[in-house]
Amino acid sequence: MSIDKINNYAKDHSCSETKLLSELRRETELKCINPIMLSGEYQGRLLSLISKIKQPKKILEIGTFTGYATLCLAEGLETSGKIYTIDKNEELIKIQNKYFLKSKYHKNIIQYTGDALEIIPKINSKFDLIFLDADKENYIKYLEIIIPKLNKKGILISDNVLWHGKVLSNKNNQDKVTKRIDTFNKNLVENNNFQTFMLPIRDGLSISIKL
Ligand SMILES: C[S@@+](CC[C@H](N)C(=O)[O-])C[C@H]1O[C@@H](n2cnc3c(N)ncnc32)[C@H](O)[C@@H]1O
Q1: pTM of the model
Q2: Domain ranges in the chain?
């Protein structure tokens, strides 16, 4: 049985995205460079489910892009909860705002524009859930700055940890980003602050709980 058939069966038997998320996904595909960066329906539903199980008061998303995962994660927030989301690309603000304002979560979303590595240390808050999905070459640095920002029993979700399968390639031929993601994966699984489980869905998603 091919892995594609199994993946399609799993998708067909998983819940569906909302109409608003479908519109956002389509507009992103039509108007944005690299629409593949968006989490997508299948991964988005998993993010929503994890958030609903956790029922966080505060979420931090590193790498907003067009806001698809922001809205998926917001589905699990407590009524007065907040999701802080950061992206350095100013050109994305228009599309983010269009969909955030249309959603019932617009009052729960706090947007930042700029370099997340500079912004995160200035946010005077701790989080119950963090979604790491920005510049992959800096994942190791992000890990250092987010550990003190994550509450005990808080959840860290790290995206693109398989990096298109390149983390499996010969170490001598790995490019800089692949090497760094591979090191991040090792650091995370060996880190005593976390219990980590890597899911080989989409481009690889690691789910860690802070002990
Ligand atoms: C993979 S996309 C995020 C996708 C989004 N989380 C989703 O699931 O739909 C990565 C985003 O990170 C942003 N980014 C890259 N480096 C960054 C940095 N240092 N600070 C803030 N944002 C950054 C990019 O502009 C891009 O929009």
Answers
A1: 0.98
A2: 3-210
